[in-house]
Amino acid sequence: MATEPPFFEKYKAIFQSSANEKEESAMVDVFEELELPLVDIGHLNLGPFERQECIETMARAATEWGFFQIVNHGIPEELLNRLEHEQVKVFQQPFDNKSEENFLNLSVQSYRWGNPLATSLRTLSWSEALHISIKDISEMDEYNNLRSTIEEYAEKVNVLAQRLAEHLAQNLGIRASYFRDNCSPSSSSLRMNRYPSCPYSSMMFGIIPHTDTDFLTIVSQDQVGGLQLKRDGRWVSVKPNPKALVVNIGDFYQALSNGKYKSITHRVIANQESERYSAAYFYCPTYETVIESCSRPSLYRKFSFKEYREQIQKDVKATGGKVGISQFLL
After folding, report:
1. N or C: which end of the chain has fewer CB within 10 A?
2. What is the mean pLDDT of the chain?
3. What number of other Cβ atoms are within 10 A of residue 76's Cβ?
4. Does the keyword Metal-binding apply (predicted)?
5. pLDDT digits over 213-258, tens only?
6. Is the Cα dihedral 40, 46, 50, 56 positive or negative?
7. How is 94-133 classified by DSSP, letter by letter?
8. Which domains, and CATH codes, for the chain?
9. Catalytic residue at 267?
10. What is d(CA 10, CA 13) in angstroms, rounded to the nearest whole number?
């Protein structure tokens, strides 16, 4: 049985209409490959000077880039390798199995692919994903060692995310307990991504441009590369680092920091030769949590996670995509 999502069958009209528009649709951006700021967070465990210097480096990256990468983060390499191994195995399942309503015995449909709202190749994501709320992991079939591996990873990466969020809040006047009070381990989610090799790689994306909704995203990825972010009005490619995890600021932290930290538009390009794997942990508050800027005058009106999600749904219906945090500017 076929394992690949039926992109050509489902989006046949889009591919046919784009066949005669290759020159107009082809990417014309010139990409520069850059290395993200690298932070050794092992320095947080050293003396007060090294600790403060490390925090300031993260804060500067969150302000100037919205992205940084971390090493000595405490998540064992063996666990990261095991997570990727289990991820590869589950995506190798037949497509008919993956697309079943109760795949992995989850009550909420976790398997996603393509983009049902796509109207052109440039709005179609050439990828498949398993998006699992942490609170639902206990429902999963064991499926080899996938569930136990995800449980182990989620526990460790949640501790890491909370630690990073608290350190980034240090100079913003945000109370020390804010994230512990508003982000329970079960309020976050994990998205495992696979980007198949793509024959239309010059005309479409692995994931279309977007910002993340959460406070922080922590990403483990293989070495194929493909992550790009918008910096100073132009797209730049991120050079993958085999020893590092990537961290980026989400919409909620941009609003909480009153615009000091930046939630940056990013995307993943499709690759004609190689498939790519990544796993993104989204550090989120509970639905009832109210996000309010930490300083005055506030750039954003206060809003709840639930309200933000409802606004995204309205925007997607109205515009075909997420508008994001700009909807909440005062």
Report:
1. N
2. 92
3. 12
4. yes
5. 999 999 999 989 899 999 988 999 999 998 899 999 999 999 999 9
6. positive
7. -HHHHTSTTGGG-SS--EEES-TT--SGGG-B--EEEEEE
8. 28-297 (2.60.120.330)
9. no
10. 8
